């Protein structure tokens, strides 16, 4: 029973990550998982519940990968986040495009935003050291932007940089913030 559930979640995860949410059907997931539609319904009830479980799995994988980086190892941190985006960036961008229209997408998007901000604070503590208040919040926001999926999209998809060029560009953005530790209080 647990193997069947795992197979359904794996198929659903692949479907949700590779196509638009609206195009994924429980019938299609069931067929690809080699089970009856009723089996999917028995395990998950609705498409929304299956989506939530599938995206929780994706979020857990992202967190386990990202949180393994050594704090202040900028090269490792930037390469890790770019490699994440190479795997799932296009999927994340699709979810972001649906955020205002499909309510179930909001929960994993918010989890991702909050997790990315926590990860940035973990990955770049020196860039945040010695600043507080509004200056801290501004610096944290700048580091989030420097390593965000939209930044990756602009560099990788829109500007057509290679993976390595994208890593270099994002690394340079982080380094500029890392080396600028005076914050001010404005």
Descriptive overview:
By secondary structure, the chain is mainly alpha-helical. It folds into 2 domains: 1-57, Arc Repressor Mutant, subunit A; 67-186. It is 77% helix and 0% strand. It contains 10 helices and no strands. Helix 5 packs across helix 10 (163-178), helix 6 crosses helix 8 and helix 9 (149-158) packs across helix 10. The longest helix has 25 residues, at 74-98. Mean pLDDT is 92; it is low at 181-186.
Show the helix and strand layout.
Elements: H1 2-18, H2 26-33, H3 37-44, H4 47-66, H5 74-98, H6 103-123, H7 125-128, H8 133-146, H9 149-158, H10 163-178
Describe the structure using short key phrases.
single chain, 186 residues, mainly alpha, Arc Repressor Mutant, subunit A, 2 domains
